[in-house]
């Protein structure tokens, strides 16, 4: 789970789930703006979760 306090930049309105098991590709031109950036610690935990799924 990602709490609003764990954002390094920007904000989220409520506690949210990082769905690292839902990997997809998105064309860069479809991204209109950045909404925020998670903390370094939370990013490391999300990467570890993804790595555990991929083996």
Describe the structure.
The protein has one helix at 40-54, and strands spanning 7-10, 36-38. The protein is an alpha+beta fold and 55 residues long. It has one domain (4-54). The protein is built from one helix and two strands.
Comma- or semicolon-separated keywords:
55 residues, alpha+beta, two-stranded antiparallel ribbon, 1 helix, 27% helix, globular
Summed up, what is this model?
27% of the residues lie in helices and 13% in strands. The protein has one helix at 40-54; strands spanning 7-10, 36-38. 0% of the residues are buried.
H/E element order: EEH
Could you give the order of strands across the largest sheet?
1-2
List unreliable stretches of 5+ residues. none
Q: What's the number of helices?
A: 1
Structural domain count: 1
Question: Helices, strands, pairings?
Answer:
Layout: E1 7-10, E2 36-38, H1 40-54
